[in-house]
Design a protein that fits this description.
This protein has 226 residues and is an alpha/beta fold. It contains six helices and nine strands. Helices cover 24% and strands 25% of the residues. It has a nine-stranded mixed beta sheet, with helices on both faces. Strand 4 (103-107), helix 4 (113-121) and strand 5 form a beta-alpha-beta unit. The protein starts with 8 loop residues before the first strand and ends with a strand.
């Protein structure tokens, strides 16, 4: 159950390099790095998926990775797939429209009726929340109240992660550390879009657990509310 009255408990799950990067270089699929995850880490990742009611990623991640976002390696139900995309800019041929699981596309008022109709024609449920951009707190309430989502997993890119952190919507992190350093100045890191002025503006987390899954270090962090 969620600790919050009207939104799911949210866990951000991500693989990261030693220097906190999500990919080899900007525009590259994260699958290039995920190939180096141990089998035990893959099992852990998919167990979190199976334990979640829904999984959310950004539209740009779908464009680059084109993942199915389904459960493999373990036995369990596929979570609802949730994709926020303000203008509905997602290809109807994307793998997230496969029949393996329900898919919710969250758009704003800026999405045209034509784009919405193309999405619903693929079997997706379209939720309109927000004027110009998707209102993430409103989306969390819709997921909780309308779809019964109590546990939400995010495998977002740096932009979605930053927006969720900005709105105070992330409760914990599960990081799968990979033994690489990327170092690129414009290579996406775990979180972007936050602009702390000094140390008092930094988001605070507490290390709850650390262990090895095969050869990969796993760290679990709790987000501290100020």
């Amino acid at each position: 159950m969620s600790d919050h009255p009207n939104r799911p408990h949210v866990t951000l799950v991500s693989e990261v390099t030693v220097d906190g990067k999500l990919t080899v270089t900007r525009g590259a699929s994260s699958k290039l790095l995920m190939e180096f995850m141990s089998h035990e880490a893959e099992v852990l990742l998919h167990q979190v998926r199976a334990d979640s009611d829904a999984i959310m990623v950004g539209a740009n991640t779908i464009r680059i990775d084109n993942s199915f976002l389904t459960v493999r390696h373990v036995t369990g139900k596929n979570p609802i797939r949730v994709i926020p995309t303000s203008k509905g800019d997602i290809s109807p041929d994307s793998n997230v429209f496969s029949p393996d699981a329900d898919t919710i596309i969250a758009v704003s008022d800026s999405a045209t009726p034509e784009k919405i109709s193309k999405l619903t024609a693929k079997g997706a449920k379209v939720e309109v929340c927000g004027a110009e951009l998707v209102d993430l707190p409103s989306l969390m309430t819709i997921l909780y109240e309308k779809y019964g989502v109590r546990r939400l997993m995010i495998e977002g890119g740096s932009t979605l992660n930053g927006l969720m952190f900005h709105d105070g919507l992330i409760d914990e992190l599960l990081l799968i550390h990979l033994p690489f350093i990327a170092g690129g100045e414009d290579t996406p890191s775990l979180v972007t879009g936050l602009h702390p002025a000094d140390v008092n503006d930094l988001l605070k987390v507490r290390l709850d657990e650390q262990f090895l899954a095969g050869e990969n270090l796993i760290t679990k962090w709790h987000v501290i509310r100020s």
